[in-house]
Amino acid sequence: MLFFVVFVLFSCLILRLGIVQIVHGQDYKREIARTDDVTVDTSVPRGKIYDRNHKLIVGNKPLNAITYTRSKTTSQKEMLAEARKLATLIKKDSPDDLKSITKRDRQDYWIMLHPNKAKAKITDAEWKKFKDGKLSDDEIYQMQLDRITDKEMNSFSKQELEVLAIYREMSSGYALSPQIVKNKGVTPKEFAVVNENLNSLPGVDTTTDWERYNVFKNDSGDAVLGSVLGNVSSSKEGLPKELVDYYLSRGYSRNDRVGKSYLEYQYEDVLQGQKEKVKNKTDKSGNVLESEVVSKGKRGDDLVLSIDIDLQQQVEKIIEKELAKNKPGHRFLDRAFVSVMDPNTGDLLTMAGKQYVTDKKTGKTVLADYALGNMTTSYSPGSVVKAATVLTGYQTGVIHPGEVQVDQPLKFAHTKVKKSWTPYGMGPISDLTALKRSSNVYMMLIAMKIGGQQTYVPNGPLSIDKLDAIKKLRYNFNQFGLGVKTGIDLPGESTGFGGGIPQENGNVLDFAFGQYDTYTPLQLVQYISTIANGGYRIQPHIVKEIREPSEKSDELGPIIDEVQPNVLNTLNMKSSWIDHVKKGLWEVVNEQGGTAHGYIDSQYKVAAKTGTAQGLYDGPKANEYWKRNELPPITWNLTFVGYAPYDHPEVAVSVVVPWAYEGIQKDPHINLEIANQVFKAYFDLKKERAKEGLDQSDTVQKVENADDAKITNSNVKTSNSAQ
Q: Which residues are annotated as catalytic?
């Protein structure tokens, strides 16, 4: 009987084995041999940024890097063991490394190191609820985290924190996606030692990473044009939180480096490049069997800016010098802006701005880059807008070229006297003299007539249709680019501040000579360019060309796209009117009595308009007065717009110096001093390049300060030495 039972059991076993091997054998073989294909994207260096003369402005500095790639089945314990091994080979205990460790990192790490103590933090009653399904794993774990004391979190030694710093980098990304463990300060010794021990460090590898850097820096270490160029996120930051979903939907990884602001952000699609795609074959356990490069990566395309970096640097130094010279005795003077543009093409040659700020580390006052303020901040412009007022007068038919009006103090009923800067008026003057000598009264009479009142009656009422007048004035000012966006290829541009519907009729008169609405320095340079080129409002741009990356580090690649001049609108005015006003702007600089006469070198053939705008101080210190229920003091903005040469315009300039002085202090003319030096810098550079045979319009294929160091990632070459 026993033998029979054994025989039956063995027969069943043999039958079952036969079914497994014969019936299902092929299925099981396929399951054992099954592999998964997982495609991973590898980051590539960003495109470079050059100036109009092909000087490198922003490049990529190659860095030795140590990476870790975990498999799908790698456990926390295995990663921690790898981190401990790696900690014996590299240093990762700098202040920045330790500072990056979060509270949650410490809590998770404490639980990993002390599992029994963590378990003891949960009561028996709570464990019973867990077993009964009333508490989830996540709830139990959160209880453990909440009950870790500060003493326990701070109980780690420096060596343990170093391991944690490495471990958190290893575990921060997705499976099969290489994570950078260390890429800054990797010494040759560390790089070599890790290479020697790769066989005993599964998932660890060495490679070459990159870091964004600015070539041109000023004396204080700030990047020239830094606020306009923008920033790129680090590998630790990854995608900005507010844009995570947007970038993930476009194929980015969470730890990708992207442009965070301004130029780097605006041209992210161009600069990002094409990632290298690697297909990893894994077995059913998640172990990598082999890797295959599906498509090689390509460094991002390069940007060639319209900016002349040599002129930019010189203009920044001019601003720094003049601010430092004029600052003593002028407590509110803290910034100045200069925009330089080609009025025929819209090429922005310079966007320079400086601002006094308090250094957070030292507490000292320093001059910082504020080039961005040319497009993001606006100020009352004063008399520089008077050319637009005169042309609006022609356009609306209230005056004609050459018309004479009497400049005298205007006294309307129940209002204060309104007048020009001369105490008793200028008497009968033409429109050209009004521009030359900067008559406020002439402009106010134009606004009054636009509002429907054709005759001034001393002590009589100001009976104008303020809504119709301000609407017509603003519409025509908009045609020059005043009060509307210029269209620059950067995000965050301001339109300035429109005063809305004037409370008083007299505010319409104020508008006519630049004392009501506010405009940006960039709007002012677009406005004077529109007059200089004969009535075409050109869209300013900072990017001139997009080029493919070149295989040779000292040459530029072929052009992909070239920005062409874009006319946003054309003034609906007779060219003879514009030419007539241009003559008045010429007289401002080149005739006796002109407000800029004697300040601007006549050899540059400049036509211009100066401006001073009076008003309550509204700068960063204004709140101190309002908190004390006090009115801020009266300050003056100094402005300038001009172009040269008068007979063949090739450069337009705007200068804005807010809150230059206060009260009845003597006008320091800092706006004119800056403007004259800017024109000198431009024409001196032009003359110098002409001697060397380098005209600005020439297409120079060679890169002047190329970067020769190689970035091996995706076979992309970049450079680092000056030619």
A: 383
